[in-house]
Amino acid sequence: MPKWSMVIDLEKCVVCQGCSIACRMENNTPVVTPELAGEGREMRWNDVFPMPHVEVGDYPNTKTHYMTRPCMHCENAPCIKVCPVQATYIDEEGLVRQNYDRCIGCRYCTVACPYGVRYFNWFAPEWNPTIKQHLNPEEVSSGSGVLEGPAVRPKGVVEKCTYCIQRLDNARQRADAEGRDFRPDEYVPACVETCTGKARFFGDLENPDSTVSRLAKSERAFVLLEEVGTHPKTIYLQEGE
Amino acid sequence: MLTIGKRDKEVLLDPLYRAGRGFYILLGVLIIIMGWGLFMYIRQIVFGLGVTGMDRPAYWGMYMVNFIFFIGISHAGTLISAILRVTGAEWRRPITRIAEAITAFALVVGTIQIFFDLGRPDRVLYLFTYGRLQSPLLWDAVSVTAYFLGSIVYLYLPIMPDAALLRDNLPEEAPPWRRHLYKWLALGWRGNRTQWLRLEKMIAVMAVLIIPIAISVHTVISWILATTVQPGWHSTVFGPYFVVGAIFSGIGALFIAMTLTRRALHLEAYITEKQFRYLGYIFITMSAIWFYFTYAEHMTQAAGQLAEEFPILASKLWGPFSASFWVMILAMVAAFVVLVFPLLLPDSWSKYRIFNPRFTLANAVVAGVAIVLLQVPGMQRVVANLSPGLPPITLRIIALVAGVLAIISLLPWLKRHLIDTMVIASALVLVGMWLERWNIIVPTMVNPRLMPSSWYTPTLTEWSLFAASIALFIFMFVLFFKLVPAVSVWEVREGRVIDDVRSQVPMPAPEPSSSARGAMRRSLEETEPTY
């Protein structure tokens, strides 16, 4: 059973925000107006933002550190521990998943997540006509009433990055149709595929020879907020000064 | 056939069948406010929670503050009445019914806040069908449900004999539904020995059971916050801190409800100053414990200066939340002063001229003007132009001295008006406790990790639903006391019997005190002949 993990090399990241846009198109996150975005209602499962309170150097020779941040898919996820109805859960492959059909919208998970990667549907989602024609029609539903991935969310539920679980589903089905075993290197999320600087790596952390396993052992490897004990599977490689 | 004394009947039972114009005006106003709230709630359901001021990262806001506040108020009743019953405090008798009613209705209003806050209120039953017992939110659902059911039973049990009394003394002109209601509520109560024994036993058992449940309720609410890893919430002191705050604000609500009920229903002969004085002592105790916990919580954060926690404390002490923080502290200190200082004032001091309300007013005006000159922007320039030699420090000293004098000179008035004092202190405490919850929830929400600080302002929707919640609380309270006497009739009668018996026990005359002995000796010496 693979343990999915992502490694992001901050040295290579050029802050183009391509991952953020690819994620939006792949996962049908609603687009909000600039006014609403100013009110803190924007949704970016994969956000790119300047690190607050971290500036190096004196004016005018300052440097800001940028961070690109999907869900951390923590092994010890605070959001799962607090969910009262098991709308969010971790599967055996280590993906922290969100069931839109179960979520009651109490927002306890959004409050408990120290990374702020969970988003709430304050309004019913809206798209302009052009984008609406190109919505990703894929849905992931396993069992009764489990609805995940890019399926269009109703208002009042929480959503989050799934490491593009629909792509994993598709890759598995393709392997099944071709009558062979599924290989962990057959699937990457949209942000990894699109990354301009090839700064993102994705794969199986259980396999010691995979790229992510080797990079995770690098001296530059670190995880965000290690001190809160969440054991993230999204791992970063440090940027040189 | 149960009977009731003429005076008790006139004061306690007869008003149940009468309603003046004021009653209907009050109901009308409350219904308008609730109707507006309902409209705003439907609007929120139609458009989504985006109509509130909540956002990312302030995922929780005023609804959560109100939830904690109302559930806190609910500790007024059952807990206080249960503790007083268990400890056999005789003075509790006239106020238990009011206290227990507050509990039941505050719990209803508190639970409604959850519906306001949920993104999908239609799925609320998932809490029971898919509930995960590992989630603190489910602990809360379990413990609030247990507390609500327990409180309803605990409210209902002592009503049974009173309902039988009402059933047997129904006036001719009473509508038939009342006859059915009281018959149903009395549950075949005839007042025989077996029934009394069972009722007393049942009440005693419930009183003991309800105390741990009540304490669990607010502890668990605090754990909703404390079990997360968010800075400012992850604190071990939260459990007892919240329970103390809940009881504190509960007594405040009880004082206000007692006073208003007493005045509206003319219960002066039943709810006397004795109840206010004794409950006041508990109030002072809770105030002291509240200060202790507040200090402990903030002092450890200030001394530790953890990189993530300290900015949140700083935002309260001198940052954007300083207004709500210091108003809270000021309200609590003022409540403590109002409660305690009159007790310390010797009676003989009231002969001095400064203990006079007019002097208070004058000083308050001086202090107010000085504060306005100091605080309002642009005023500093005016001051500088008027009197160039007057530095701000002088104004500060004037404000301080005038303020202190205003409070001191008010003390004898407070001492004479015990009930008004309690109402003033209660109002201050309720405001302070609401702000305390605000100061716990919002600063942590708007200062998240990995994100710049943001701000949260409630919108009209949130304020409307807050107003509607208060209106609903008053509405239920007022209607309830049109159906059931506000004072537990049988308990008061029982108390009278106990007092009667006590008065027949011969008490030894007081021994002469040392000063009295001295006076006696002197008078003896004076009568002795001089040699």
Descriptive notes:
With 241 residues, chain A is of the alpha+beta class. Chain A has a single domain (4-237), classed as Alpha-Beta Plaits. Chain A has helices at 18-27, 34-38, 78-82, 108-112, 129-133, 165-177, 190-194, 211-216, and strands at residues 4-9, 47-56, 63-69, 88-90, 96-98, 119-120, 158-159, 200-204, 221-222, 234-237. Chain A has a 4-stranded mixed β-sheet with strand order 8-1-10-9. Chain A has a two-stranded antiparallel sheet with strand order 2-3. Chain A has a two-stranded antiparallel sheet with strand order 4-5. Chain B has 531 residues and is mainly alpha-helical. Chain B has one domain: Formate dehydrogenase/DMSO reductase fold, CATH 1.20.1630. Chain B is globular, with a radius of gyration of 27 Å. Chain B starts with 5 loop residues before the first helix and ends with a helix. Chain A binds chain B through residues 36, 39-42, 49, 51-52, 67, 69, 78, 81-86, 102-108, 110-112, 114-116, 119-124, 154-158, 224-225, 228-230, and chain B through 47-50, 54-60, 114, 117-120, 123-124, 126-127, 130-132, 134-138, 141, 224, 227-230, 445, 448-454.
